């Protein structure tokens, strides 16, 4: 799928799905490379991803001050705006695709870069295939992004390393705090990851370096409440009543039901409806069981937008992924997602490669079962060895009055 | 209350109350100064504050490696252990006091330093007065500490600046994340502070620097649900459904009842018992009202132990407070708490002074009402001017594999 001919035209860069600490670094890498590419005549940022294309709401990136643009490296969340928009099968309903092509033609768009996770790669793949089918020359590239780290075919995903670092650091600090009294305290930390346990597993990095959770539960294996109680009882006895637990929001029973959603059974002690998250629910169950003081902590949004704790490695690789997408497209490639190929044996090394979009869209990569310990309440050293290089390095972060200084873009709309 | 005579003997340093990001910096300041003082023959750290004295559980600080000890500057929470122990009135029951004196005599303790908040200053005051009454020469000094910032007589308290910086930074990042879609989202962030709104007010620092909550509610003024709804409706309409709200955990109705504890009334739409915190409760009410997507986020323990975001100013002052307590005692002072006297007019300057313990114990300092805006949903510029200098500076933080490197103390027990 390579073409040697020079394709001249405008490009659109869009951000999609849940924000991360470094998705704007990928945007910066792509925007900067596109602005510098001779064959790219104009660089547009789509407002709220593909919705901005459908709504004809494109920001002219050429109008931005280069220094402010560079501050995207310091700015968490998706500065162009994001969306969660599921594209229909074009064979069933091609309305959106015809509209996208109309906009592409209006602005002479010949390059389309889409930065996101699984659903976004699906969008990207569908648009790519549609352009091919219609015979509209447009080079389409996916740029990976997800704190969930569950994109198929890539060693890891931009956004994961920074979220993992936030979780590990918060785990260390939380562990120090939760063990400060000489009285029992059970603390449950709830971590994102509906289907894959990469993020929850990162809490174990804290334990590996001296202060972290005693127990970690991932959604790759079935959760069993009796085993959980037995685990907690054991740590409770051994540690003078101090237990720190990390759970993935996606833990589920053997029947597939999420623990966060399941009705509390009669044996759990109370039957009324509960609000609040999984951490609070589990903490309450443990309070009834032990009488101990408990705390349920949900890391919530903060774990995915904690740019002040961004991993230098993650930030660098996120920018690289954006730049690599543009460079590949300019060189004639299309219909690919940028992926990472890494070695860890003799020091960590990471380079980009290209994977066909159709191969990555809609597949989920989970934590290998052999990286989860036998008792299903922690991860193995192989997991630590995998994740540790990804959280390394602390980039310089521009500040103003000791608070983060974010990019202030003009966001001039194209007409 | 000054004595010119040199008092020779051992000292005890204890930590008490809720942990902070910098309470160990005060411990370090005091321990280091005590180790260096000729008249102090031995330096003991009490395990879990006054409980360690009562239990005869004292760590010999002289045995610690100086470099590890210095890492206390990098270590959040109370490394010696903390307690929440209310001392009885010695005129009613002097059992604890007689035990404390027994331990003081056993180890020839002539200096007692107690680092904590309001309750701890009460403990410190009672022990000081008891020693005086009995005629046991012992110099007793309080070292202030509380993220709540509510100690009387001091411009501010060590621990507050770092917590404020954590809250402001998280507020900025949370704001970026919570506004990323073009669909309505209401986000409620719950911040510590049962009686004083210093911490919740710090969220407004984020707004002052470009990305933060639209509405901030402090416990100094009565909370009114109808006004709250009107505030939210107004922002909701103006901002396309995006509203970020910061609330102090201590907000209460006019009758004094905490909003977090009050039964949900019939007009609120549902009447069943609720678990989970205030943020989740308010978010749920707003979900019913608007139909919008909502998020309730409780910053929980992480706001008080976020050492990776410690304010350089706070860290320096915390160490200074510990050192100043020892230096004052060595010079003959007793029965005081170290306090801060600051000027902000021509640049920020801060120096220590001494306040009689009896003047500070059991008083609470709240946010002045004139620093809360007229509509009771935010703070004024005077609050920003007060708090901003306290979050300045980012100290060098030793790391190991890009994770915090905490002090590893030997904690050799005295016998």
Summary keywords:
homodimer, alpha/beta, 13 helices, 13 strands
Which helices and strands occur, and which strands form pairs?
2 copies of one chain form a homodimer.
Chain A: E1 9-15, H1 23-36, E2 40-46, H2 50-54, E3 58-60, H3 66-70, H4 95-106, E4 109-116, H5 118-134, E5 139-144, H6 160-178, E6 185-191, H7 198-208, E7 215-217, H8 225-238, E8 242-248, H9 278-290, E9 293-298, H10 302-305, H11 312-330, E10 336-343, E11 349-356, H12 357-360, H13 381-387, E12 399-400, E13 403-404
Parallel strand pairs in A: 1-2, 1-4, 4-5, 5-10, 6-8, 6-9, 7-8
Antiparallel strand pairs in A: 2-3, 10-11, 12-13
Helix pairs in contact in A: 1-11, 6-7
Fold and architecture overview:
Two copies of one chain form a homodimer. The first copy, chain A, has 13 helices and 13 strands. The first copy, chain A, has 415 residues and is of the alpha/beta class. Mean pLDDT of chain A is 94; it is low at 264-275. Chain A is elongated and about 70 Å long. In chain A, strands 3-2-1-4-5-10-11 form a seven-stranded mixed sheet, with helices on both faces. A four-stranded parallel sheet of chain A has the order 7-8-6-9, with helices on both faces. A two-stranded antiparallel ribbon of chain A has the order 12-13. At the A-B interface, α6, α9, β9, α10 and β12 of A face α6, α9, β9, α10 and β12 of B.
